[in-house]
Amino acid sequence: MSKVLFVMTGVDYWTLADGTKHPTGYWAEEVVAPYKAIKAAGHEIVVATPDGVVPTVDQGSLAPEVNGGADGAAEIAQTLADAAELRSPIRLEDVDLAEYDAVYYPGGHGPMEDLSVNADSGALLNAALASGKPLGVVCHAPAALLATAIDGDSPFVGYQVTGFTNAEEAQAGFADKAKWLLQDRLVELGVDFREGEPWAPHIEVDRNLYTGQNPASSAPLAAAIVKALG
């Protein structure tokens, strides 16, 4: 049995360009799909957040229209309700990477607010990349890579990476409201950003780094990580 660390946002808002706070958190599917796949494979999951706060689900991610209908939404909600790990996170600041076999960052707009500037997260990402352990990051969670340029260039420079695209942010209605766009900032960081079709599953695997573009990418990303864990 392997032990997988889920690093999740600790905020329930995202500050827009005009200063308003848009309610958000983590995106349900991006937690539930990997959670179910990793648990089904017999592995243990530990959740970590900044200061150990209980993570907040983005209410929009519980809607039937983004979960394939009412049944899908009910299943998502039930899985979250049953996931005891989400109710007892450890402090991100106290994480010892040596205790884990893989690290996974789910998205939602929350990471744009906190993990994008969190030095503890940045150091953990750099250590995970250097360790060779599977490191999964999906949708808006690649915003956390922006905190990895601790002493000069980020070690992620040149890696093939995907994440929530400018096109998807525009179609979601936030491109003209955001302080910055994830795809733009990742390109500025120096990664080799790879863009797939909007909303379609798309993952990139470069050495031990596994990234997914959007919510639909979380299940195939999880399957790739489970396979890597053996």
Automatic annotation (TrEMBL):
One Pfam family in the UniProt entry: DJ-1_PfpI
Statement: the UniProt record of this protein carries the keyword Membrane: no
Keywords: Glutamine amidotransferase, Lyase, Stress response
Superkingdom of the organism of origin: Bacteria
Listed InterPro entries: Class_I_gatase-like (IPR029062), DJ-1/PfpI (IPR002818), Prot/Nucl_acid_deglycase (IPR050325)
Keyword Nucleus assigned: no
Domain DJ-1/PfpI: 29-227
Transmembrane segments: none
Entry's family note: Belongs to the peptidase C56 family. HSP31-like subfamily.
Protein name: Type 1 glutamine amidotransferase domain-containing protein
Origin species: Nocardia vinacea
